[in-house]
What we know:
The chain is of the alpha+beta class and 273 residues long. It has two domains: 4-151, 2-Layer Sandwich (Fructose-1,6-Bisphosphatase, Chain A, domain 1); 164-269, D-Maltodextrin-Binding Protein, domain 2 (3-Layer(aba) Sandwich). Helix content is 30%, strand content 27%. Strands 3-4-5-6-7-8-9 form a seven-stranded mixed beta sheet, with helices on both faces. The protein has a three-stranded antiparallel beta sheet with strand order 12-14-13, covered by helices on one side. Helix 1 runs antiparallel to helix 2 (46-62) and helix 6 (195-203) runs parallel beside helix 7 (222-230).
Amino acid sequence: MMSNAISELLEIAKEAAVKAGVEVLDIYDKGDFEAYEKEDESPVTSADYRANEIIMEILQTRTPNIPIMSEETPLAALDERSKWTRYWLIDPIDGTQEFIARSGDFAINIALIENNQPVIGVIYWPCGESLYFASKEQGAYKRCSRETKPISVRKFEVPSEDVIMIAISRRQSRERIFDRLTDKRSYQTLPTGSCSLKACFIAEGQADVFMRLGVTGEWDTGASECIINEAGGSIKAATFDPITYNQRESVINPDFVVLGDQRVDWESIIHYK
């Protein structure tokens, strides 16, 4: 049974994600935003900052004793962060490029990290009016059209032979991905946008695997990892080592993979190089 404390924190995270998502969608529909370039040349918009304000205000008001790490706020030094046994990890808009390109494939990400592991994951997809959420050992769920249902990764009939559905970015070279896959399997592709939505689609069985090659931060995987774990999958570094949280000065992730059915021998299929 989920503890009352975790249950309450999950509801707060869901509330914050949806409230931010509703306002972001209004900005998106009106096209009323400014786009900028960060020092690392990644894009950010006034909508990212507004979503961050909404989420931060709710979390700081409702959970004043829990620190917050966000993509859109200055990063505390590791000396300070290492003292955190529990903290919120947020990406106000995952898929800012998709927001700017008007594909609709962007999402609000909120995770709760406890003892360096995600224990709550909430991802809201404004354009799909879908809320994905999970808490440790309590399963993964999707709420859409006021209906909430459990979700799980697709179970292969024959793990060693079934066709594999790869979630793939519209803006990432397919050759870079397929160069790292064994040619002994059959594949199909599901083009989509943000990293977190790809993870959600794997969690609900629409796709089976996703490989992310390129720069991401811990806020890009925190919520996704909790949801995919509870749905029966996993997230690993592309070398199949664990993803870590708040254990290094840098919060930049390694290249990583999101994996569905754990009976599949993914290490024989994906060759990282």
